[in-house]
Design a protein that fits this description.
By secondary structure, this protein is an alpha/beta fold. It has a single domain (about 1-185), classed as Vaccinia Virus protein VP39 (Rossmann fold), CATH 3.40.50. The chain is built from seven helices and seven strands, in the order ααβαβαβαβαβαββ. The protein has helices at about 1-5, 15-30, 40-50, 60-75, 90-95, 110-120, 150-165, and strands at about 30-35, 55-60, 80-85, 100-105, 125-130, 170-175, 185-189. A seven-stranded mixed beta sheet has the order 3-2-1-4-5-7-6, sandwiched between helices. α3 (about 40-50) links the parallel β1 and β2 (about 55-60). The longest helix has 18 residues, at about 150-165. The protein is globular. It starts with a helix and ends with a strand. The structure holds S-adenosyl-L-homocysteine and magnesium ion (MG).
């Protein structure tokens, strides 16, 4: 899967970020995990293989979904991982009857705040939200004046999501900027 991701430029979680995520999973022993952004199912299958959790993962790209489904079958993880097909901002109804002990946000960076607000009502009392790519290749916090308009916009969105988390009165967030591509871990206060 890693080789496929590399060759096809699928942005799967970095080793260090994955190790960090799996440490959290080892400590918290979540029974249910929601992932937003399955891609080819790399992170979801690593979480499944390294825990007892059941995982619901959302993906909107049909090409990714096809590969994710193939990998799901090949790994024999159909009983542990459910792939929800569609935009995470539109498929809430398919997920709303679940409760999650962990939510891993790893989809369109510009929409993190919307994902957070939409899905955290499904989080259990001691549950954690892990957000990936909060330094975005080290570009967050740098001088963006020479970057393309779209990259500037993206970095502005990530920066404002960080501010949203930092100022959130319901959740307490710790930022791990030196791990992987920058991870945030939020718990209910
Ligand atoms: N978690 C994966 C990598 C995810 S890459 C891993 O580490 O292995 C981000 C994925 O999120 C892409 O496949 C993209 O299609 C998907 N995505 C982006 N925005 C989305 C949205 N609004 N709803 C569902 N999926 C989305
Ligand atoms: Mg990521």
């Amino acid at each position: 899967m890693k080789k496929y991701a590399q060759e096809n430029k699928v942005p799967i979680i970095k080793d260090e970020g994955l190790g960090f995520l799996l440490d959290i999973i080892n400590n918290e022993e979540p029974k249910t995990i929601l992932e937003i952004g399955s891609a080819i199912l790399y992170s979801a299958s690593m979480m499944a293989l390294n825990s007892k959790a059941n995982i619901v993962t959302i993906e909107r790209d049909p090409e990714m979904i096809e590969i994710a489904k193939k990998n799901l079958k090949e790994l024999g993880l159909e009983k542990r991982i459910t792939i929800i097909e569609g935009d995470a901002l539109e498929v809430f109804d398919q997920v709303k009857n679940y409760k999650f002990d962990l939510i891993f946000i790893d989809a369109a960076k510009a929409q993190y705040e919307k994902f957070f607000n939409l899905y955290t009502p499904l989080l259990t009392e001691d549950g954690a939200v892990v957000s990936d790519n909060l330094i975005f290749h080290g570009l967050v916090g740098t001088d963006t004046s020479t970057y393309s308009r779209s990259l500037r916009g993206l970095i502005r969105k990530i920066t404002s999501y960080r501010e949203f988390l930092a100022n959130n009165t319901e959740f307490q967030t710790t930022f791990y900027d030196d791990i992987g591509d920058g991870m945030g871990v939020s718990y209910k206060r």
